[in-house]
Amino acid sequence: MQVDTWRRFVNGDKEILTSLPDKIASSWRKCYNEQVDPYLVKPRTVLTENELKSCQRQHQILIHLVKNESKHFKEIMHIKQPIFILTDEKGTILWREGSYQAKSYANEIYFNVGSRWSELDVGTNAIGMALENKQAEFMSLADHYAIASRRWSCAAAPIFDSNQDLIGILDISTYNNNSVQEAMLFLTTITQRISNAYIREELNQKMALLQYAGKNLDHEILCDLHKRIVYIPDEYQDYFEMNQEIQGQLPRDLLYEEREIIFNNELVGYRYKLYRKLSEENEFHYVGVPSKNAAYQQFLIKVQKLAQSKVPVHVYGESGSGKEVIAKTLHMNSPYRQGPLITVNCGSISDSLLESELFGYAPGAFTGANQEGHVGKILQANGGMLFLDEIDSMPWKMQTALLRVLEEKQVVPLNGQPQPVDFRLVSASNQDLRKRVIAKEFREDLFYRIYVGKLSIPPLRERLEDLLPLVERFCEKRQWEINWKERLLQIARTYHWPGNIREFNNFLERLYIFYAEEEPTNEQILELITLGRLSEKETKPQESIENQEREEILKALKSQHYHVTNAAKSLGISRATLYRKIKEYHIEY
Predict the structure, then answer these.
(1) CA–CA separation, 145 vs 38, rounded Å?
(2) Distance (Å, rounded) from C-alpha 442 to C-alpha 448?
(3) CA nearest 113: which of 68, 63, 149?
(4) Across 264-399, where does the E strand assignment appear?
(5) Tell me, what's the pLDDT at 246?
(6) In this structure, what are the phi and psi dihedrals at residue 234, rounded to the nearest 5 degrees?
(7) Alpha-carbon torsion angle 495, 501, 503, 507, nearest 10
């Protein structure tokens, strides 16, 4: 019967929902209104390998506690081939365990580690309902919204921390049977035990953080694994007391650099070194890694001048070149720095969802809409800065709507009333917008509105001097000491890094994973550099390492008028090393 109900509903019969339990009907309606595909197989959100590792690292204590409790799972082995799932607070699967056959069935619908199992990602399901309602939920076969999940039955229960914030979901699922319903009592008992153990670990973690603070007082804010503030230096106490609404959270109007805190070989939290003190209102602050390149330093002078104005700015840069870093820098140094920085990637949101994401909607704007309405990103940016990344991918209809906002300085939510807005617009693209206008793919009138100030980020291949500070920053964050840094840089300079800083950081991540405790050979370093290349032709080193290094030294000497000390500084090596290289390569000066 419910199969027929589902088929009629996804084909547009809204009245049929009256035959369903209220919470199932409400969830189906929400999925329909949010355009969740009932025929989807793969979740909307699947984390990349690096994103997953970061997420698992942040939740390592929770994963460890669940693994410890897994020895009790045999108590419900009378249930037919169960699979056990742990997710984070967003529904991302962090860990799973079960029989080979159950995991094989799960793999067919991407019910595996790295996939996000919220309502909006896969439709109505027990994990999503438990996230939404913050209580244990059971979902029978035909209760699911997406067809791929309708052969599964699931029981899910939340795990809480000491603040009663939901930090994860433990789920038990079975394929093609409802026997998992018998496990609800067991599941809630286990999750309560995990919550209690987690609270004890939280206390130990805070003690470790405070021990760290006692030894390393350096104007840093300390946070736990969930980015909640544990320690604030004295000079910032007044600011936090005056801003009650941000207590316990990192303030959005301050910029900070995130670094991990390792205690007894475990990640216990994060430290944030502020880029500016609260009294330094008129200084320019760049939030990226300081550059040694003269051309990039000239670029930052342009950034500083534009930041101090209120005009719209367009940032052009190749993929991975740091467009978001420039956007943050513009915001931090602008007249709008006290307001929020709201970021929207126009290329990552479907055309149908982009309108409600940007403009929002009024309460009751459509059936199943949030009863309180939704505040769009444009209105959220009021008094601050709106950063529209990949604006070149914005559909024509939305370009027209954005132009109207910029001209009239007001936004009209769906089914709502006009509301005045005042914000700084910064846009970005990795394509030349002028060519898009000529090709009639971007509105000319909008182009002139957003292209008042233009910044072109120099690619990494044109500022290889910055490889050294990037390596130093990476090693500092990882607390990783290496004595073969010079050799690493020598090899890295032979590659032209089409993916820019992102590609270089990915290479450093690989290097750290494989050689954290040992020194790699030149060939092993080069292999990790070229591991992610797109084609042999595109990324083949142009010259031998020796010839390339000789050219770099000559270039540095000429640019510094053959002043050896200054040339050594620009190369990031000692003067003695430079003298040795000059002799080795028979360089006359």
Answers:
(1) 6
(2) 11
(3) 63
(4) 266-274, 313-316, 341-345, 360-361, 374-375, 385-389
(5) 47
(6) -55, -40
(7) 80
Give the burial string for 459-479 (b: 16+ CB within 10 Å, else e): bbeebbbbbbbbbebbeeeee
Helices (H), 333-376: 351-359
Residue 2, pLDDT > 70, answer: no
Q: What is the pTM of this model?
A: 0.53
Closest-CA residue to 408 (of 400, 416, 140, 485): 400
Rounded-to-integer distance, Cα 84 and Cα 75, Å? 13
What pLDDT, on the 0 to 100 scale, is given for residue 537? 45
Give kind and range of the element (H or E) at residue 259.
strand 256-263
Mean pLDDT of all residues in 232-251 = 58
| Mean pLDDT computed over 143-157 | 92
Cβ distance 460 to 325 under 8 Å? no
Task: Report the C-alpha gap between 533 and 179 in whole angstroms.
Answer: 49
List of domains in the chain: 2-198 (3.30.450.40), 216-274 (no CATH), 294-456 (3.40.50.300), 543-589 (1.10.10.60)
- Evaluate whether 328 touches 341 at the Cβ level (below 8 Å): yes
- pLDDT score recorded for residue 577: 74
Contact 296, 465 (CB under 8 A): no
In three-state secondary structure terms, 167 is strand
Position 163 scores a pLDDT of: 84
Cα 391 to Cα 428: distance, rounded to the nearest angstrom? 6
Residues ≥6 apart with Cβ < 8 Å to 271 = 212, 216, 220, 221, 222, 223, 258, 259, 260, 261
- Helix axis angle, 323-332 to 294-307, nearest 10°: 50
45 has a pLDDT exceeding 80: yes
335 secondary structure, DSSP code:
T
Q: What CA–CA distance (Å, rounded) separates 384 from 404?
A: 19
Burial status of residue 49 (CB atoms within 10 A of its CB: 0-12, 13-18, 19 or more)? exposed
Instruction: Measure the N-to-C terminal CA separation of the chain; round to a whole number of Å.
Output: 89
Count of all residues that appear for the chain in the document: 589
pLDDT for the residue 271: 81
How does residue 133 score in pLDDT terms, banded at 50, 70 and 90?
A: very high
Identify which of 142, 126, 256 has the alpha carbon closest to the alpha carbon of residue 188. Answer: 126
Q: What is the pLDDT of residue 541?
A: 44
8-state DSSP, 414: B
Question: Mind listing the pLDDT tens digit for each residue in 249-281?
Answer: 666 555 566 778 877 777 788 887 665 554 455
Residue 41 pLDDT: 82
Sheet holding 256-263, edge to edge: 229-231, 220-223, 266-274, 256-263
Q: For residue 239, what pLDDT band results from cuts at 50, 70 and 90?
A: low
Cβ atoms of residues 325 and 288 within 8 Å = yes
pLDDT over 70, % of the chain: 87
Among the residue ranges 292-306, 333-347, 527-541, the one predicted with the least confidence is 527-541
**501: Cα separation from own chain's centroid:** 16
